[in-house]
TrEMBL record:
Membrane topology: Peripheral membrane protein
Signal peptide: none
Record-linked InterPro entries: AAA+_ATPase, ABC_transporter-like_ATP-bd, ECF_ABC_transporter_ATP-bd, P-loop_NTPase
GO molecular function: lyase activity
Domain ABC transporter: 5-231
Compartments, as annotated in UniProt: Cell membrane
Major subcellular site: membrane
UniProt key word Nucleotide-binding: yes
Pfam family, one: ABC_tran
Keywords assigned by UniProt, alphabetized: ATP-binding, Cell membrane, Lyase, Membrane, Nucleotide-binding, Translocase, Transport
Family according to the record: Belongs to the ABC transporter superfamily.
Protein name: Phosphonate C-P lyase system protein PhnL
The keyword Protein biosynthesis is annotated on this UniProt entry: no
Length: 231
């Protein structure tokens, strides 16, 4: 099978200058992922799970190791050493990231946010509008909210919108940081349906979960994280 991602000896530390102290968030992380695989990571809060995803997405710069990614455009690259322009391209066209918190353009309605995710991939306005409607309907976001600003949404509605914005792009690599944190059981099932669909299309995924039951039937492999290390 085609290998899409390989993390080798990844280490990330943070420095608290006021205390003159170094904190190890993640250390000796080694993960290999083939195209279409889905791995889940569990662990206590503060164990370093999110740090791995942020290093892959390069919102954190790792201190040591390599993150090899088989890009459709650039070929095999080390995310730790590619240019900012290349990384921006990967985030825009090849990677998706879902966090617990909605990070959206201000004064932009929900429907436009989802459409924008498709438009920036180079698709037409007509196609973007169609795909936005389809995924918003899938997550059963009230139609009255489609033309509303997300700051009026509940926590669960914001999370569903966040997931929709990432999934509508059908990325090659999807990073999920607690994607079901504030969702009810019915909404979780809708998320699971789309994850299985993306997986069948070849999307590779890494997800962080507290809900271990959610991982059943979705993840190919499961890891547990303790004190910055994968078990």
């Amino acid at each position: 099978m085609e290998q899409l991602l390989k993390i080798e000896n990844l280490c990330k530390t943070f420095t608290i200058h006021s205390l003159r102290k170094h904190i190890s968030a993640s250390k000796n992380i080694n993960i290999s992922l083939n195209k279409g695989e889905f791995i889940g990571i569990t662990g206590r809060s503060g164990s370093g799970k999110s740090t791995i995803l942020k290093c892959i997405y390069r919102t954190y710069l790792a201190n040591e190791g390599n993150i090899w990614y088989n890009s459709k455009k650039f070929g095999l690259v080390d995310i730790l050493s590619i240019s900012e322009r290349q990384m921006i391209y990967l985030r825009k066209y090849e990677m998706g990231y879902v966090s617990q918190f909605l990070n959206s353009m201000p004064r932009t309605i929900a429907r436009d946010l989802v459409e924008h995710s498709v438009l920036e991939m180079g698709f037409s306005k007509e196609y973007a509008s169609k795909e936005a409607d389809k995924i918003l309907e899938h997550f059963e976001l009230d139609r009255e909210l489609w033309d509303s600003y997300p700051n009026n949404f509940s926590g669960g509605e914001k999370l569903r919108l966040n997931i929709a914005m990432a999934m509508v792009k059908h990325p090659r690599l999807l990073l999920l940081d607690e994607p079901t944190a504030s969702l009810d059981n019915y909404s979780k099932e809708r998320v699971k349906e789309l994850l299985n669909q993306l997986k069948s299309e070849g999307t590779t995924m890494i997800g962080i979960f507290h809900d271990i039951d959610f991982m059943d039937g979705v993840c190919d492999r499961e890891y547990n994280m303790e004190a910055g290390e994968l078990i």
